[in-house]
């Protein structure tokens, strides 16, 4: 598959085949310039009365109706089975921010695979949206202003060190690892700054913080901030 099939100066959404909350889809539409469907996610997009810019995947879950309705030039079949449809889309989309919806549903293996992809493609700045939470790979430096008392969890995808401001339990001097210390259920005490020195750390926030988080990440890109958490 050719890299960067779609390039955009604005946010792009990738819609997966898992559960999609119509309210979340409406919010994503307001934030993203275009929708890309990952295989069966095309059916969610069509059900909302929309046409995806492109459908990417191995096409093992897209419906026959979608195959008939969608123009062939909008169908990008990728036969290889070594990556998920979400990964196939990440490789094909280049944008300052990607919003992933329909990948954090009832199946925990799908959610874990999507979070793994965040760590594997750190150059693709992406927010995954679930029913209760959003999550994204923390860039080298992150500034956010969630409400005081909001839950902010940190989950390492490997060995991680960093420091923080604005959290009830600071992370400076701590060694994080998936089989060791993790940072779930921390609490916001003021404006948050996270600096990741080494490793890949996933930030998890309530889904109510989607719009504010998207704006903060886009502003950081505009200011020249790196999207690669390993930079």
UniProtKB/TrEMBL annotation:
Name of the protein this chain belongs to: Thiamine diphosphokinase
GO terms of molecular function: ATP binding; kinase activity; thiamine binding; thiamine diphosphokinase activity
Class in the EC hierarchy, top level: transferase
Listed Pfam families: TPK_B1_binding (PF04265), TPK_catalytic (PF04263)
Alphabetical UniProt keywords: ATP-binding, Kinase, Nucleotide-binding, Transferase
Residues of the Thiamin pyrophosphokinase thiamin-binding domain: 130-202
Organism: Rhodovulum steppense
Any one GO BP annotation for this protein: thiamine diphosphate biosynthetic process
Listed EC numbers: 2.7.6.2
Cited InterPro entries: Thi_PPkinase, Thiamin_PyroPKinase_B1-bd, TPK, TPK_B1-bd_sf, TPK_catalytic, TPK_catalytic_sf
The keyword ATP-binding is annotated on this UniProt entry: yes
């Amino acid at each position: 598959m050719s890299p960067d099939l779609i390039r955009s100066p604005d946010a792009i959404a990738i819609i997966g085949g898992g559960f999609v909350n119509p309210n979340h889809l409406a919010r994503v539409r307001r934030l993203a310039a275009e929708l890309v469907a990952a295989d069966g996610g095309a059916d969610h997009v069509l059900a909302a009365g929309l046409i995806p810019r492109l459908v990417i995947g191995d096409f093992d879950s897209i419906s026959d109706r979608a195959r008939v309705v969608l123009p062939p030039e909008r169908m990008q079949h990728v036969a290889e089975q070594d990556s998920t449809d979400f990964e196939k889309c990440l490789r094909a989309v280049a944008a300052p921010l990607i919003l992933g919806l329909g990948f954090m549903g009832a199946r925990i293996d799908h959610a874990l695979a999507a979070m793994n992809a965040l760590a594997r493609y750190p150059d693709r700045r992406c927010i995954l949206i679930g029913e209760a939470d959003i999550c994204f790979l923390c860039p080298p430096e992150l500034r956010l202003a969630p409400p005081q008392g909001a839950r902010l969890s940190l989950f390492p995808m490997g060995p991680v060190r960093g420091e923080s401001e604005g959290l009830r339990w600071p992370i400076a001097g701590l060694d994080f690892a998936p089989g060791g210390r993790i940072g779930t259920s921390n609490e916001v005490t003021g404006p948050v700054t996270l600096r990741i020195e080494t490793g890949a750390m996933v930030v998890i926030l309530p889904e109510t913080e989607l719009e504010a988080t998207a704006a903060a990440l886009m502003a950081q890109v505009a200011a020249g901030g790196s999207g690669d958490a390993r930079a």
